[in-house]
Amino acid sequence: MAALGWLTPRRRSATARSVLAGEASAEAARKSSQEIAGTTAEPEFPVHGDDRAAAFFDLDNTVMQGAALFHFGRGLYKRKFFDTRELARFAWQQAWFRLAGVEDPEHMQDARDSALSIVQGHRVSELKSIGEEIYDEYMAERIWPGTRALAQAHLDAGQKVWLVTAAPVEIAQVIARRLGLTGALGTVAESIDGVYTGKLVGEPLHGPAKAEAVRALAAAEGLDLSRCAAYSDSHNDIPMLSLVGHPYAINPDAKLRRHARQMDWRLRDYRTGRKAAKVGIPAAAGVGAVAGGTAAAIALHRRRR
Predict the structure, then answer these.
(1) What count of other Cβ atoms lies within 10 Å of the Cβ of residue 196?
(2) Contact 276, 258 (CB under 8 A)
């Protein structure tokens, strides 16, 4: 029997190196069996039937190429709601925010105050009607197929999917409905009996405000944020991305790309050649603060004259 002694358990304890070797071998065996069975080690995501999970998508340059508000302005210009000089001023104002890389509080406040004073007294329904037409003309063909597929995966898993954007909530809701999403969180302008008062409810839904909106919605919906996903192209949305258990950087700007790599977040880039420059001109929080934004406000003002 002495010759079979190697079959009996040894009395001495295993060394740290032998424990490591054993664990590594077991892990390799587990992965091998999964590959043979046609599965991967990575857990399923999104998890089908997880009703405490949801997905939150930024809009501009994440779901749509360019800025929704800029495309909206193009549609209004086509309808001769304002002249070339006003369109150029609007476009330059958007570009300034992007090129400067910072948001000057005084500059943004002036833009918000001006737009709010113009939109005052106009009806919400008018803005929504315009948005429906312009979506078909300019926005539908600019939806990123890759991001759309990600959103559909969540819907197919039985989860709710929300847009979260600094764009006016009325425009965001049009886009969400056309894409078959659950709904949209956007900047809210105060209205009474369907008429804008010229005041903003809170502040533009930008940066930290997006994170607070997602947190509030999750509480109301009974969601577990650690099981939720968020998608964005901008470093301004790091607060929102940091809230969830599954953050994704989509077509990321340089700052978000660096942060995502440091945090080991997943990245997706649907731009040709991974261009650093954005497609179109992103909406600035200051201009997107008003329902319809500066372009919509100017258009409505001209029509009422």
Answers:
(1) 24
(2) no
Residue pair 83/299 in contact (Cβ under 8 Å)? The answer is no
User: 226-258 b/e with 16+ CB inside 10 Å = b?
Assistant: ebbbbbbbbbbbbebbebbebbbbbbbbeebbe
In angstroms, the CA 116 to CA 198 distance is 5
pLDDT tens for the chain, 305 residues long, are 444 443 444 444 556 565 555 555 555 555 544 444 444 445 678 889 898 999 999 999 999 998 887 787 777 777 766 666 666 665 665 555 555 444 455 555 555 554 555 566 778 888 788 889 989 999 999 999 999 999 999 999 999 999 999 888 888 999 999 999 999 999 888 889 998 787 878 778 888 999 999 999 999 999 999 999 999 999 999 999 999 999 999 999 999 999 999 999 999 999 865 443 333 333 333 333 333 333 433 333 444 44
Q: Which two tokens stand for residue 43?
A: 């857990």
For 275, counting Cβ atoms within 10 Å of its Cβ (0-12 exposed, 13-18 middle, 19+ buried), the class is exposed
Paired tokens of 203:
């502040």
Q: Two tokens at 262?
A: 């440091």
SS3 269: coil
Residues recognised as catalytic: 58, 60
The residue type at 247: P
